[in-house]
Task: inverse folding
């Protein structure tokens, strides 16, 4: 791992200017080191101090608090929360998309059975539900998460009154995106109110019939309105429907709402004690940059080209321990590799396999 | 009170202050009055007396006190909440419930414009016609149980939520409750301490201590038990979940009713009926997923 630590350090040295945390002095920081050690309750007076720290002791993963505190370095109960970013976590791992999971490998912890693709709920061989997954990631994972970001932005700006300038979008560095609302009234909400927002965004608990009976179909915003648009325009005269027609209409509306709903991890949104990855820091499972993105950029970014954080040099030899599907990075194609294969790769590709737990370094 | 000689200057009669003694305007009437004044000033005897009446009526759960002059209402409201805060969370919670419900009843006589003015000036809520700003809506509504209050079932546009007059009344009542619950606990001078002790005794007389422990309950249910014991007002769903779980864990109906005695709006008959109903129908305790949906899941406990 020594080689990778050096590559991370070189990254933080040359890219120090891109490391950015809004209102840095009010945040709590947490770092996971290459030795697995976790440091919490750290604080930095200025951005420069943080940047220096990352070079001095490059971490595998670097996080900061969504909350702003009076005393960020104090114990949890003493910190004094001022307000907190409203964070949405969009992760393709939650979406169970077949193509995105194509290269994933699962293993039953009880009987050791291995399989690829979408992991089953229970082991087909022994029935155990203790299944661990080594996720892969590919362009499809980014594609499905990107679509959720697009829908989320529509809800935030259209329904919830969030100004585009208050939003910070970042690629997580792995299989999804983070969307943070960092200014405005929603940053003052408590846990319960954040839960309401999260459920709203997901259309969770939406009572479709109440909207129909209150004439809500005249709506211009909201899930119902978007669902109607998805169904092909406005529908009127619903009050004259027979019970059977109405049921059918509700059914159609329901499945359309499901397409308008945003798939987020709502527990993350409600948790004001959450720590989240520092924009433009490196992800410890990919070596990719947690790129901060503009509204235009998130729509087209491809992490395999745009977020590769490590250089090509030096080439490193790795021994594959878990099958590696074919993948492309910086325009160059690699793999597929089978177990036991020893390959010499550019540093970024070798690190990618090492950090994902698919290979070990070979000398 | 200060129709003669106290520190409170009598305003021109304003019914709004009787309905909403918590308002910003009300607070301005009390400027310059100290806790010691409230405790000792002979000119404020009536204030103390009405504060005591508020508290005892709240604790005993018997209707509402008869409305008095605006200045007396405002003074006694503030005195009552300071005393209640000194008496502890349970008494404070009773008072908060009392004042919220009293407001809900009396506010019918205010015009919609008056209600909105009150909301803006006292609680900083903003409106666009029939729409209330999202953050203010959530501050009130996230504590109210029931599907219709969930944001997902509301018409929301551009950061505003469509509401009607009744919604606004109910939301404001929640603000009243919440603002009273945030009353700081101060060291009470002797005359006020005596009223606080009286209110605590009255409350203790209302409830017999429940002897059941909350061991072996899942974390979400233990938390609800603790919240009930602390006198916190729970949503309908939380109450249902709690009762269904406790029955499943072998609690007797009478033990459950006793537990609920700590709640600010406790009514023995109603509670006994509800508990018996849930027991009689053998309702299943809500699943983990339901509990999460209702916002009652507090840990990843692994139980189902």
Result:
């Amino acid at each position: 791992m020594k080689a990778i630590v050096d590559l991370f350090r070189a990254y933080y040295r040359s890219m120090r200017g891109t490391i950015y945390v809004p209102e840095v002095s009010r945040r709590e920081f947490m770092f996971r080191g290459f030795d697995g050690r976790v440091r919490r309750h750290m604080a930095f007076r200025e951005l420069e101090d943080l940047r220096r720290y990352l070079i001095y002791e490059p971490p595998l993963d670097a996080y900061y608090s969504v909350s702003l505190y009076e005393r960020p370095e104090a114990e949890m109960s003493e910190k004094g929360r001022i307000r907190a970013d409203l964070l949405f976590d969009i992760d393709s791992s939650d979406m169970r998309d077949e193509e995105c999971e194509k290269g994933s490998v699962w293993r039953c912890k009880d009987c050791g059975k291995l399989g690829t693709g979408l992991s089953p709920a229970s082991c087909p061989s022994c029935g155990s539900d203790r299944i661990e997954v080594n996720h892969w990631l590919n362009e499809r994972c980014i594609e499905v998460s990107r679509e959720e970001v697009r829908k989320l932005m529509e809800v935030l700006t259209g329904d919830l009154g969030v100004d585009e300038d208050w939003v910070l979008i970042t690629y997580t560095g792995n299989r999804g995106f983070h969307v943070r609302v960092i200014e405005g009234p929603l940053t003052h909400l408590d846990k319960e109110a954040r839960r309401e927002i999260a459920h709203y965004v997901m259309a969770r608990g939406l009572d479709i019939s109440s909207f129909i009976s209150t004439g809500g179909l005249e709506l211009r915003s909201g899930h119902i309105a978007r669902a109607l648009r998805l169904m092909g325009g406005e529908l009127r005269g619903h009050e004259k429907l027979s019970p059977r027609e109405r049921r059918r209409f509700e059914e159609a509306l329901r499945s359309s709402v499901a397409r308008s709903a945003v798939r987020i991890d709502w527990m993350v949104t409600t948790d004001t004690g959450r720590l989240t990855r520092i924009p433009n820091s490196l992800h410890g499972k990919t070596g990719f940059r947690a790129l901060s993105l503009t509204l235009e950029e998130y729509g087209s970014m491809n992490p395999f080209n745009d977020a590769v954080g490590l250089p090509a040099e030096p080439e490193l030899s790795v021994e594959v321990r878990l099958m590696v599907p074919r993948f492309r990075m910086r325009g160059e194609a690699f793999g597929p590799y089978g177990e036991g294969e020893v390959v010499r790769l550019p540093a970024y590709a070798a690190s990618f396999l090492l950090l994902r737990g698919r290979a070990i370094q070979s000398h | 009170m200060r129709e003669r000689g106290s520190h409170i200057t009598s305003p021109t009669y304003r019914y709004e202050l009787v309905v909403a003694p918590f308002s910003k305007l009300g607070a301005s009437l009390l400027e310059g009055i100290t806790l010691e004044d409230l405790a000792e000033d002979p000119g404020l005897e009536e204030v103390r007396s009405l504060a005591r009446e508020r508290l005892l009526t709240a604790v005993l759960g018997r209707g509402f006190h008869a409305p008095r002059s605006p200045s007396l209402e405002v003074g006694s409201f503030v005195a009552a909440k300071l005393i209640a805060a000194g008496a502890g969370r349970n008494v404070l919670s009773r008072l908060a419930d009392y004042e919220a419900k009293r407001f809900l009843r009396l506010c019918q006589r205010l015009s919609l414009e008056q209600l909105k003015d009150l909301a803006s000036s006292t609680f900083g809520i903003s409106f666009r016609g029939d729409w209330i700003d999202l953050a203010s809506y959530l501050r009130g509504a996230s504590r109210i149980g029931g599907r219709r209050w969930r944001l997902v079932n509301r018409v929301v546009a551009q950061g505003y939520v469509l509401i009607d007059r009744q919604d606004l009344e109910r939301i404001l009542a929640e603000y009243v409750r919440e603002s009273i619950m945030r009353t700081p606990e101060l060291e009470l001078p002797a005359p006020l301490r005596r009223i606080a002790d009286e209110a605590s005794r009255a409350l203790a007389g209302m409830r017999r201590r429940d002897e059941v422990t909350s061991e072996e309950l899942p974390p979400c249910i233990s938390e609800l038990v603790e919240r009930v014991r602390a006198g916190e007002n729970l949503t309908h769903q939380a109450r249902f979940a709690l009762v269904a779980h406790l029955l499943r864990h072998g609690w007797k109906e009478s033990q459950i009713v006793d537990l609920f005695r700590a709640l600010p709006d406790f009514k023995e008959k109603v509670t006994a009926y509800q508990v018996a109903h849930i027991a009689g129908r053998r309702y299943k305790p809500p699943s983990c997923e339901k509990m999460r949906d209702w916002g009652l899941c507090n840990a990843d406990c692994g139980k189902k």
